[in-house]
Amino acid sequence: MSEALHDLKMPSFGADMAEGTLVKWLVTEGEKIERGRVIAEIETDKGIIDLDIFENAVIEKLLLKEGERVAVGTPIAKLSSATTNSTETADKDIPPAQNIINDSEKKEHKPAAEIPTAQDLVAAPLTGENEFILATPAARALANKQNLSLHNIKAQNSDKRLITLAMVEAFDKEAAPAAREKDAQTAAQPQAPGKAGFDKEAMRRTISETVTRSKQQIPHYYLSQRLDITALEHYLHEYNGSAALEQRILLTAPLLCAIARTLIKNKQLNGLYINGSFAPSNTVHLANAINLRGGGLVMPVIRDAQTLTAITMMEELKGQVLRARNASLRASELNAASFTVSNIGERGAEQMFAVIYPPQVAIIALGSPHQEAMIIDGGIHIRSIIEATLAADHRVSDGHIGARLLYQLNQQLQKPEELWTVRN
Amino acid sequence: MTEVSFREAFKTAIVEALSDDPRVFLMGEDVGYYGGCYAVTKGLIDDFGPQRIIDTPLSESGFVGAGIGAAIGGMRPIVEIMTVNFSLLALDQIINNAATLSHMSGGQVSVPLVIRMACGAGKQLAAQHSHSFEGFYAHVPGLKVLYPGTVADARYMLKMALADPNPVIIFEHVMLYNQTGTLPESNNIAPMEKAVIRKTGKDLSIISWGGCLYKALQAAELLEAQGYAIEVVDLRCLRPLDSQTLIDSVRRTHKALIVDESWKSVGMSAEISAILAEQALWYLDAPVRRICSVEVPIPYAGHLEQACLPQSKQIVDIALEMLTAPEQVLKEEL
Question: Which of A142, A165, A168 to mutate to test the interface with B (most CBs of B within 10 A)?
Answer without folding.
Answer: A165
